[in-house]
């Protein structure tokens, strides 16, 4: 048993306010944090859940420049959208604030100044690209040029989005400033660095020896970083959007967003609890839990703790239960490519189904490895689990009680072995769910809750009260009494996961919200208690709805492929007499058939104006034979014949490769005589 705490402070990674939030954000951070917060509150524990928008950094300035707006306009827009989306999904923040608040500016500046006055930082002078025309230093994303790896002319100073290679600005060929378009120059600049290497011994002791209980994906990533050796990290940068450095000689410099953002947890707590905030950050009786995605593990387990250690008066996090990434239909979610299920769009397309998504994302949570969201799985889990198991049991319990007992909870008679076995399963569920929730195994805890609904279904199915109604009403009363106790317990077991649905179920049962310690009770609904009106808790999702979502993603993928298409670099120069050696002609396709035992090959019979020739072409995945029969094509007529699959091919048909890899046959604009030369 670990240390017992009086209260728990839950923080959630600050979403970046340059766009809306998607299912990956919800699954990775905010849903598990909300489940945990709701669970602790049900237990009666003093709990705060802190959130807010991260509103500084280069991507916001880039978007503002692109739209002709000020950065504040951008963050105001998306902060509002994000905050409303979280509220719509029932994410129970005690405060959801932002890093452009005045209290955050004050808190972050003061934090930096304390470390500065203690001599924590290292000052370094280095060379960085500078735009003489714009008179400013350039962040990596303000520099574009040719990628040295793939030749993409629009690679950024930190990454080429065509080939995915990480870059430094100095790697680019012919770099240009995105602000003025001019060629940047190297110029000296001074920055302040947090010497992480100084804190390596402390971090190794604290993480590798004192927190071996952390999730293996978190512990492993921390160990890898510590084993590689930590390096000083800049806490300032040359930018005009952010929190100015509160020291002389630092004009035009702001706090680096990685340093500024986690201090937002502190400033947001100050905003919520101006008189008692230190209780939540400095009292050793407070447990701090950071909920984040795996891309933030290093910042929350190594960098932020080093900052807190350097300051000296703050608690360190007790756990950082980071999730891995959620992919979408087999591909990585990408905000820049619009490859995502946006939460505000989901609410518009599937109104009232917040809990369905909460259920699916928890059941398929990427807790220790990346997982994949698919719309087919979403539909199956709704129809086969929420509707067929949970919803079916609840509906049968209430409808049968209304039918046989006019909606009044009946009194049980003598219990049989099956009744006692079922009640034992009910009374054991709380201990197992607590074990799982306390160790952040939310997916398994949800499975336990659904297992209770399965138990209820099995109990009703095997007891068959509808067959006993006429002959043994006392037995029916016992069965329905136990079924209703299970139903009432479901409102507690599922409350952290499906809050809206459990509120509705509580209304159907005419039961007020119950504390967590009542889970497993067999007397939640006493005999004589009047139930409310039964309604369907969940509804089946039809194929048409799912197909519309799949089609939406398919359209986005096609748009992305077209936007991402970069023609291959031009090949080496040839002489005119090299080209003159090629004899390219037009021909009419007389016949086209598939080549047996060859998935890709089509066999063409071509009228070339002089004779009939056979050409084999690997386009069976792009065309059906009947689509090409009768077409005029262009082909290389003087290519040396070669045998493929035992068939002699006498030429090569010409195709253009589209952005999505599809081959498109090259044809004359109008009909010409077979055998016409292409010049």
Structural description of this entry:
With 679 residues, the chain is an alpha+beta fold. It has four domains: 7-118 and 260-332, 3-Layer(aba) Sandwich (Rossmann fold), CATH 3.40.50; 122-192, Methionyl-trna Synthetase, domain 2, CATH 2.170.220; 374-568, Isoleucyl-tRNA Synthetase, Domain 1 (Orthogonal Bundle); 576-665, OB fold (Dihydrolipoamide Acetyltransferase, E2P), CATH 2.40.50. It has 21 helices and 25 strands. The strands form eight sheets. It has a five-stranded antiparallel sheet. Strands 3-2-1-13 form a four-stranded parallel sheet, with helices on both faces. Strands 5-4-9-10 form a four-stranded antiparallel sheet, with no helix packed on it. α4 (102-117) crosses α8 and α5 (200-209) packs antiparallel against α6 (216-228). The radius of gyration is 32 Å and the shape is flat. The protein starts with 6 loop residues before the first strand and ends in a 14-residue tail after the last strand. The relative contact order is 0.09. The model has no long low-confidence stretch (mean pLDDT 94).
């Amino acid at each position: 048993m670990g240390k017992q705490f009086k209260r728990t402070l839950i923080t959630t990674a600050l979403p970046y306010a340059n766009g809306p939030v998607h299912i990956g954000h919800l699954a990775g951070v905010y849903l598990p944090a909300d489940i945990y917060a709701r669970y602790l509150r049900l237990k009666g524990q003093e709990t705060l859940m802190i959130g807010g928008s991260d509103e500084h950094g280069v991507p916001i300035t880039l978007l503002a420049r692109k739209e002709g707006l000020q950065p504040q306009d951008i963050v105001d827009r998306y902060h509002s959208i994000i905050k409303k989306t979280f509220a719509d999904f029932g994410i129970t923040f005690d405060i959801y604030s932002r890093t452009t608040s005045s209290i955050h500016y004050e808190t972050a500046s003061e934090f930096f100044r304390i470390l500065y006055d203690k001599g924590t930082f290292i000052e370094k002078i280095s060379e960085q690209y500078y735009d003489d025309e714009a008179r400013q230093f350039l962040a990596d994303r303000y520099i574009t040029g040719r990628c040295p790896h793939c030749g993409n002319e629009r690679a950024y100073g930190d990454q080429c989005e065509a080939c995915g290679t990480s870059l430094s600005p100095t790697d680019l060929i012919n770099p240009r400033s995105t602000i003025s378009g001019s060629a940047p120059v190297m110029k000296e600049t001074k920055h302040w660095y947090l010497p992480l290497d100084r804190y390596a011994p402390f971090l190794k002791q604290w993480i590798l020896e004192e927190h071996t209980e952390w999730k293996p994906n978190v512990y492993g990533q921390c160990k890898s970083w510590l084993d590689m050796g930590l390096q000083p990290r800049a806490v300032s940068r040359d930018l005009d959007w952010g929190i100015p450095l509160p020291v002389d000689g630092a004009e035009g410099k702001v706090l680096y967003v990685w340093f500024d953002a986690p201090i937002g947890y502190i400033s947001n707590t100050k905003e919520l609890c101006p008189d008692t905030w230190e209780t939540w950050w400095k009292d050793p009786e407070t447990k701090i839990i950071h909920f984040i995605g795996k891309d933030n593990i290093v910042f929350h387990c190594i960098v932020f703790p080093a900052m807190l250690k350097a300051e000296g008066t703050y608690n360190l996090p007790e756990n950082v239960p980071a999730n891995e990434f959620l992919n979408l239909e087999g591909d990585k979610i990408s905000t820049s490519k619009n490859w995502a299920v946006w939460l505000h769009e989901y609410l518009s397309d599937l109104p009232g189904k917040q809990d369905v998504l909460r259920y699916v994302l928890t059941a398929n949570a990427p807790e220790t490895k990346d997982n994949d969201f698919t719309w087919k799985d979403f539909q199956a889990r709704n129809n086969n689990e929420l509707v067929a198991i949970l919803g079916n049991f609840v509906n049968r319990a209430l409808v049968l009680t209304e039918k046989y007992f006019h909606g009044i909870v009946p009194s049980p008679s003598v219990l049989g072995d099956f009744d006692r076995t079922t009640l034992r399963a009910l009374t054991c569920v709380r201990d197992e769910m607590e074990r799982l929730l306390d160790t952040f195994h939310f997916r398994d805890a949800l499975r336990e809750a659904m297992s209770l609904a399965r138990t209820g279904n099995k109990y009703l199915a095997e007891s068959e009260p509808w067959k006993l109604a006429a002959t043994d009403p006392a037995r029916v009363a016992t069965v329905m009494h136990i079924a209703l106790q299970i139903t009432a317990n479901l409102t507690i077991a599922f409350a952290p996961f499906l809050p809206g649905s459990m509120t509705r179920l509580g209304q159907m049962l005419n039961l007020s919200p119950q504390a967590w310690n009542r889970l497993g009770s067999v007397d939640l609904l006493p005999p004589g208690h009047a139930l409310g009106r039964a309604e369907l808790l969940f509804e089946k999702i039809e194929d048409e709805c799912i197909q519309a979502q799949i089609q939406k993603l398919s359209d986005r993928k096609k748009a992305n492929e077209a936007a991402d298409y970069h023609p291959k670099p031009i090949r080496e120069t040839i002489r005119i007499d090299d080209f003159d050696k090629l004899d390219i002609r037009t021909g009419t396709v007389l016949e086209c058939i598939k080549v047996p035992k060859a998935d890709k090959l089509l066999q063409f019979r071509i009228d070339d104006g002089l004779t009939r020739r056979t050409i084999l072409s690997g386009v069976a995945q792009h065309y059906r034979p009947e689509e090409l029969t009768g077409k005029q094509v262009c082909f290389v007529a003087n290519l040396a014949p070669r045998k493929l699959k035992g068939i002699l091919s006498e030429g090569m048909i010409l195709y253009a490769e589209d952005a999505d890899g599809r081959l498109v046959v090259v044809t004359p604009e109008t009909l010409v005589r077979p055998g016409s030369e292409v010049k």
